[in-house]
Amino acid sequence: MNIAIVGTGYVGLVTGTCFSEMGVDVTCVDINEAKIKALQAGVMPIYEPGLESLVQKNVQAGRLHFTTDLVSCLDKVSVVFSAVGTPPDEDGSADLKYVLEVARTVGRHMNRYIVLVTKSTVPVGTAGKVKAAICEELDKRGVQIPFDVASNPEFLKEGAAVKDFLAPDRVVVGVESEEARKLLERLYRPFLLNGYPIIFMDIRSAEMTKYAANAMLATRISFMNDIANLCEIVGADVESVRKGMGSDSRIGNRFLYAGCGYGGSCFPKDVKALIHTGKENGYNMRVIEAVEEVNENQKSIVFDKINKLFGGELKGKIITLWGLSFKPETDDMREAPALVIIDKLLKAGAIVKVYDPVAMDECKRRIGSVVEYCKDMYEAVIDADALLLITEWKQFRLPSWKCIKRLMRGNVIVDGRNIYDAKELEEEYFVYSRIGKK
Ligand code: UDX
Q: Which residues bind NAD(+) (predicted)?
């Protein structure tokens, strides 16, 4: 089977690579020439565990190709996945210009039956616009070539995307013809052999499923952050509450961790887009609006704690951040709480030192040299008045507190992810503060 994937961002690259791993002939297309050249040479544009070796292996096997020219592969493919960006507009709505451009290119140049599958996260109803764009181009050409549109949202977690793709909880596919259904069923057959379900539905439901799933996960996080903040006020411990709640099988114990707010490329964008879809349709998404508001506040919570501990006097204080990416195992800093915290610390006159195992270059690219970049986690705490744990990378989990105590000039630790043992830290005479416990 021959397929094309348009967009070699996070989703497109993982999707294309994993299909080629299953024996499909995949052409990945991107307009960015430098990126395509780098990929042809096996150089990754993103950090994602396991991806580089899979790309190299499948390129060598001749199953995975990279090109800037979508048109050149349209005559050999039966399925085109569109995985281009849908950046949020000012008002939170998803900008569909790249998605529709792919549709127009397909319509202008296709000469055989093709299913155009949208993988990008797009508002409900987008498939209709994609279909109309293709029809318009075919009309201009004065030809009638059968085609289908479909929706196949992705549920990949950054840092575990390859694993998620190869062993998904489920694959959701929205189709409106038997032919498209058969083609996509065949394409995903290797996953069915593994026993994972592929769930077919109508296209609008598939588009909505993605937003509903992400909004639900974001809701769990904001809910727990709200509970955590109340726990601090009333003298409860959110970690105990989480265990007590999560043991109820109806609730489950995953995605219940209070922290310094969710970030990344999906939750913030999808929550905003869902609110916007509601507004556009005259319906207020009240729960989701609150989810977003709670998250915005939560991103400042670590700063608020440190500011309070220093009595509002942060000028000249040396504050260290461990972790910059929005979560471990990625260098992605989109909507990362670290950016909000750094900004607030600098505005308050603090000197900020940072260390992250992989996101330092990304941080430099975003904010430049306004903070001091340290070569390891221990160098970062030298002379620090306080240490803030922002991203729970594994290497931060069991540090040598004795060593840290010798290196720091102060003794304040704020744990934005609740990973440390309070007793252990207090034995070393640290002042330890975390989320959801006084
Ligand atoms: C998410 C969805 O999980 C995935 O299915 C979707 O396709 C894309 O969006 P991702 O953005 O990679 O994936 O990250 P995820 O692991 O879900 O975490 C998102 C954010 O929530 C992170 O900032 C993380 O720190 C935070 N989080 C997660 C919490 O604060 N508490 C939790 O219990 C879980």
A: 30, 35, 86, 121, 158, 269, 334
Residue 255 beta carbon below 6 angstroms from any ligand 1 atom: yes
Same fold flag, 2-201 and 299-434: yes
Domain extent listing, the chain: 2-201, 211-297, 299-434
158 CA distance to ligand 1 middle (Å): 8
**Catalytic hit among 266, 363, 374, 403:** 266
Range 299-434: architecture per CATH: 3-Layer(aba) Sandwich (3.40)
24: left (phi over 0), alpha (psi -120 to 50) or beta: beta
Smallest CA separation from ligand 1 atom 5, residue: 155
374 classed as catalytic: no
Cα–Cα separations (whole angstroms), residue 159 to 5, 126, 329, 353, 386: 21, 28, 5, 25, 29
- CATH architecture of the domain 2-201 equals 3-Layer(aba) Sandwich (3.40)
Query: Best of 165, 221, 225, 242 to mutate for ligand 1, by most ligand atoms within 8 A of CB?
Result: 221
pTM of the model as a whole: 0.93
Q: Which of 50, 101, 51, 62 is nearest to 80 (CA)?
A: 101
Q: Which atom of ligand 1 is nearest to the CA of 264?
A: 11
Atom of ligand 1 at shortest range from CA of 265: 11
148 contacts 176 by C-beta, under 8 angstroms: yes
For 211-297, which CATH class?
mainly alpha
Express each pLDDT in 369-394 by its tens digit.
Answer: 999 999 999 999 999 999 999 999 99
Kindly report, residue by residue over 275-307, the tens digit of the pLDDT: 999 999 999 999 999 999 999 999 999 999 999
DSSP type of residue 89:
P
Is residue 194 scored above 80 in pLDDT? Answer: no
Whether 123 lines ligand 1, by a CB cut-off of 6 Å, is no
Per-residue pLDDT reduced to its tens digit, 394-432: 999 999 999 999 999 999 999 999 999 999 999 999 999
